[in-house]
């Protein structure tokens, strides 16, 4: 049998292929993005980027209703967006198998919170599997479809950053030939009006009971839930990456109940395991889901009294909590300076933020690369809540504080995020006669998650040409009469336009349009040049926050700006910051 070293996300995509999945719809979100990117390489499966997670879930659920095996993927906060259809889909059930992968981000490597998606599984009464390595990512994905169709339920597949982005060996199988199931109209099952929903809730509770029995029995036979008996002095219950850390740290010095099904949790299996060990400990990242379940079963258990509900764990976390041993790893004698992420050299957002800087504006921010503009030295963002919130939150801020504040406030939102959930906020401003100024940072790509296409740039997930959303026409269609496009590298023109639009007592949309500097199609100018005779080393150019800029000393010991020619793309924003004309723009390569 062929084997391959795969990322967890890649292994999920392989599992989709082998399971005979037909339809995939997702919205990119770290750490889940690569699942759909890898899946799109299998031409046997239809793959698409949806405008947001709610749409992706609904597309996939519709495909499952039509008899196909279907899938969607998202990060943990994306499941919040898709929660509305999730909770009702759980009542309806499926026709073809339906799986939704949700990737949590303990440690918040690329997220605004540490949400635990198991809560959504419990609240929506949806079964959830959680793999602990790439092999299980592939296996559990395939098993999820079998369970989905057997128990007539959507299935959630919970990943985490470490499982999604770690590599391990996967055994490759062939693609299952799963025919399209017949669609039969059944209003009592699929139309969730109150009368039908009452009956559906009865079925859901019965399903949970049946799946709890499954978790206690067949899940063990299938290798989803596993008992590993070693030393009986300590018994550890864990799932996903927490199990891997526990196994690495404790080895044969503990027994393990590894849970692959984390909702519903088994009952008899846990009780029997607890009866075999002297001390019972639950190790789980984020919230105390398993520990609380054990307490409800009347078991004496330790969990969050030993392990934090904050951040990622490691085998060091386990060693520190359960032993006197120290983790064996190399350390540096000196502290390594922090290297926070920054806007790339030549990022078009830098020009826009530098234009705003010094204007004394309130900036309602959003989710994307441009969120990095909140960091010094630009520091040009006041709030950041969730996808699309910048637009509607600005409207609320201005309503609360009045017209004069509205003339000193803007919202910033990326093109992909605007498509995701910014449009409705724009409609709200126009409909309710607001006068807010919204700036769409159109860089022609979904940047933060790794350059995915979106409905605004006219390319599909496979890079094929398609229709693109005309942002100017859209804004006018919803009621914005004042719509303008500006090049953010022209800092002076950008600043003048923002000032002019803020003076208008009507809603305004500014599109700051220039493609991402990292796109292969973008041709850059030559690096800027420092005129040593004019540069006085004042460091004003550093206020643009470009990583290609630093300072050094001339031969006479006086300060001077330094350009890293390997990074500089000649955007010229730093030249506009120089009051002494010491930075000269280069020509086009």
Attribute tags:
589 residues; alpha/beta; seven-stranded mixed β-sheet; six-stranded parallel β-sheet; 21 helices
Compile the SSE list and pairings:
Elements: E1 3-7, H1 8-18, E2 23-26, H2 33-39, E3 46-49, H3 53-65, E4 70-75, H4 76-92, E5 98-104, H5 118-124, E6 128-129, H6 134-151, E7 155-160, H7 161-165, E8 167-171, H8 187-190, H9 194-216, H10 218-221, E9 226-228, E10 234-238, H11 240-250, E11 255-258, E12 261-263, H12 268-276, E13 279-283, H13 289-296, H14 315-322, H15 348-356, E14 362-365, E15 383-384, H16 389-401, H17 403-406, E16 409-414, H18 415-431, E17 437-442, H19 471-477, E18 482-486, H20 491-502, E19 508-513, E20 529-530, E21 549-553, E22 559-563, H21 573-577, E23 583-584
Parallel strand pairs: 2-3, 2-4, 4-5, 5-7, 6-7, 10-11, 10-13, 14-15, 14-16, 16-17, 17-19, 18-19
Antiparallel strand pairs: 1-8, 6-12, 9-11, 20-23, 21-22
Helix pairs in contact: 1-2, 1-6, 3-4, 11-14, 15-20, 16-18
Overall outline: globular
Helix proportion: 25-40%
Task: Work out the radius of gyration.
Answer: 27 Å
Largest sheet: 7 strands, mixed
Helical stretch count?
Answer: 21
- Portion in beta strands: 15-25%
Number of beta-strand segments: 23
Judged by helices, strands and strand pairing, the structural class is alpha/beta
Strand adjacency order, main sheet: 3-2-4-5-7-6-12
Mean pLDDT: 95
Give the N-to-C terminal Cα separation.
Answer: 51 Å
Q: What low-confidence regions span 5 or more consecutive residues with pLDDT below 50?
A: none
